[in-house]
Amino acid sequence: MTTPPVCDYTNSDYQTSFWDKGNRDYEDAVEGIALKRLLPKGGKRLLEIGAGAGRNTPRYKGFSKIILVDYSVTQLEQAQARLWNLDRYKFVAANAYHLPFTNGTFDCATMIRTLHHMADEQMALQQAADVLQKNGIFILEYANKRNVKAILRYLLKKQSWNPFTPESVEFVDLNFDFHPKRIRNQLTECGFQIERQLTVSHFRIGILKKLIPHKILVALDSLVQFTGNYWQYTPSVFTKAVKQSGEMNADDTQLFKCPACNHSPLPDTPPEIRCPSCGRVWKVENGIYDFRID
Predict the structure, then answer these.
(1) CA-to-CA distance for 292 and 294, rounded, in angstroms?
(2) Which candidate, 92, 142, 138, places its Cα nearest to that of 121?
(3) For residues 121 and 7, is the Cβ–Cβ distance under 8 A?
(4) What fold does the segment set 14-290 form as a domain?
């Protein structure tokens, strides 16, 4: 089985160093506003792809069940520690290129600050499409290569890559920026119809965050997010897309499929789940299902 390289946050203090102590209150707040505007009021099952330590999970109000997926078990352990109603959640360690869920299982899925780690972004987007039911909602955030800072740097010859060309750019190992048109085309190819776009983090500049009060900066960003349907020149873009066709799995007992051979459904039998087709055994330890494929 061919799998693109995975960005693994195992034993990382990303939540603490980047978010809690990284002076990113502005980014967190404006992303929360964008999510509130794009998310459905509620639903049965939401899949959070690249959940990390659960920073955004409390924002998914109105959903009966939330399944958090991350490749890192330690990130999921941090998410367990910060979420109070554990009965509402399932924690699944999995490769985003091989999601272990039956097709048509979810009525909503999110992928926030995750696609920028994907060397094969279309493969990851197709996985999200497969597990969504018809008319399911997909909220995607991606890093935009055609942002104002990158354009200025290119014009001043301080960077070699062209922000206007369609190919993705890997600016750091397993960190990618994407052109908006490329992402829109790939979503369409995966069977989505784009319903809405929001531009986010318009003022992600250190000096502005120091000089302008936090509440004012967030309010300004909130006002101009609506321009996203017309142009995208911010470092972060949020997209709401609707799955146009597909299956619908309404059976709560048939959540999982084998990511190794795609047999479904798998019996949900912790502490071990054995695939009756290929014989692969998947472990469940401390409430975390481990379906990772390297």
Answers:
(1) 6
(2) 142
(3) no
(4) Rossmann fold (3.40.50)
Structure tokens at 198: 């929001």
- Residues 6 or more apart whose CB falls under 8 angstroms from that of 36 comprise 59
Q: What is the DSSP string of 197-234?
A: EEEE-TT--HHHHHHS-HHHHHHHHHHHGGGGGT---S
Return d(Cα 265, Cα 107) in angstroms, integer: 18
Mean pLDDT along residues 274-278: 97
Residues 177 and 112 sit within 8 Å (Cβ to Cβ): no
For the chain, give the mean pLDDT. Answer: 96
Compute the average pLDDT of residues 227-236. Answer: 98
Does residue 1 carry a pLDDT above 60? no
Structure token pair of residue 6: 């995975």
Residue 2: band (very low, low, confident or very high) from pLDDT cuts 50, 70, 90: low
pTM equals 0.96
Q: Which of 85, 40, 48 is nearest to 70 (CA)?
A: 48
Measured between alpha carbons, how far is 153 from 155 in angstroms, rounded to an integer?
6
Hey, which residues does 139 pair with through a beta bridge?
110, 240
Hey, what amino acid is at 197?
A: Q
* Closest of 173, 151, 172, 171 to residue 162, by C-alpha: 151
Residue 106 corresponds to which tokens in the numbers above?
A: 């979810």
pLDDT reported for residue 227:
97
| Dist. CA 10–CA 130, nearest whole Å | 27
Sign of the CA dihedral running 121, 122, 123, 128: positive
Q: Give per-residue pLDDT as tens, 34-48.
A: 999 999 999 999 999
Predicted pLDDT at 183? 98
The 10s digit of each residue's pLDDT in 57-82 is 999 999 999 999 999 999 999 999 99
